[in-house]
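To: structure desk
From: M.T.
Subject: fold request, one chain
Message: Could you run this one when you get a chance? Sequence is below, nothing fancy, just the single chain.
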Amino acid sequence: MKHRLRTAALVGISALSLTLASCANDGSSDASSNAGSQANSSDAKNSQASGGLEVKPAGDYNPLERDQIQDGGELTLATTEMAEQQNIFHANMNRYTRDVWTKYNPQLSLFDGDGTWHPNPAYLTEVSDEEVDGKTQVTYTIHPDATYNDGTPIDWKAFENTWKFNNGTMEGVQVNSTDGYELIESVEMGDDDKTAVVTFKQGYPWWQGLFGELVPPQIQDADTFMNAYIKQVHPEWGAGPMKVENFDPNGGTVTFVRNEKWWGEPAKLDKITLRAMEDQASLNAFRAGEIDATGIGSRDRYNTAKEMGDAVDLRAALRPSTFLMTINSTAPGLEDKKVREAIMRGIDREQLAAIRFQGLDYTEDLPGSFTLFQTQDGYQDSFGSVIQYDQEKSKALFEEAGYTMGDDGIYAKDGQSLSVRYVTLGDSPMVQATTSAIQAMLKQVGVDVKIEERPSSDFSKVTANRDFDLFMSGFSSSDPFGVAYFGQIYSSDSELNKSGTGSPEMDAKIEQLQQIADPDEQIKRANELEKEALQEFGIMPYANGPDMVATKKGLANFGAMSFGVVPLENIGWAK
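Reply: Done. Structure tokens follow.
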């Protein structure tokens, strides 16, 4: 079995499908032109939120053709942090790495809001797949003018480089994910340098999730891959309609302007600016007209946007994300599976979901899977079949683990009280309410919860170092092929698996899962394995929810994307 090394972004799901992102900001930086995933159908009960605001399953982002969009203008957005690691393929990337990377690097895959995949014609003039001797073979024909900013051609070698760094065989490299790439047998030149032929070791149904982004061929060794993007970007290795004008990680800003070396249709916008902000600051900035869009996924943010009247557009779509609690199994006292199960059984997920959706007039069934959404064919409520809220069962499990209730109402063992460190990020009222609820619920079952408040900008530090006992975050989906990335969530050596749970036995079963060529059979087996993996009690889903975004009037091809990824050059202001 190959050894995998993965990490990703918490919200923080492409082999980069799963990313971690903070859930601390009420969606304040959730407005994105580069989300992505899949929905096959809509659920009627999910169709309305916020007093009648329609939640559209296929995205709500004012799609306009280029001739309907002004030439010029600027777009200023908030982001939660300027991520320390700016390499989107690196183990420690997160959602905010993606926010920057996608503004100046090749963007080969596009998605409609309903999850339909398209090759980006600015980079790929043709993509075809066929079965050859039982193996999936995909041929990518690269645009003849496609070139990196430093003059290096984008050719088959960029595909080969992407595969080599992501297939799990390169020493000293920690990648976001090897899923899919490790099943590739070869990447070779086709008829010429501008043709890449990718041959898998078997039939592989999720190939459209790979090569959406490329590891620049200028990255040739592990040291460059691991360190070149720490607190810095590389405009010369970019290739797109916009380029980096200024990057200030300490000041928390990055600006992009039109790229004179771009061979495609010119960007409609003159400039895009990202500014790192705390939750309340971003709301104030939107109200003051200092930023052009913001997430409104909480009562306060939504009501503020409504009060702005006709000056703004309110957009809502089904969110390809899962909010969750992670229990760090490597923390003292939490290595015992019974203790982790007891903590989960002591938490009322419905109450957490109600807090997240308070004031939005929105309800949904509790999520039960990290691989498929409730709107996707094949979804099953795996979590609900494994664990239910039950405070008495929770107490019984603590006692089975050797704990005794003290006079203070807190369990103790060997003279040590059962105390857990719950790390929170940001200043949002939703986070504060969630924190209070969890602290109260766990006290009722005999757990002392110590709250450690950190700024939103500490997100990367907290997740990369697993500096928590309990942590609320989310998995955000960037393509529709969630089952392909089962290993990102549940493999014992996956850095996205911040709980530190898993086993060699489960790793072997995941390897076998990936060998299944039929997509329906793979989904069926994934559902079986997920029930088993969730019995490690490392992660607990509690909400998906609507993606709700407020934008200034007239912003086109931007907003609540659902599963959509649109060409960067087509974002702009309506005529």
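Reply (cont.): The chain has 14 helices and 26 strands. Let me know if you need anything else for the meeting.
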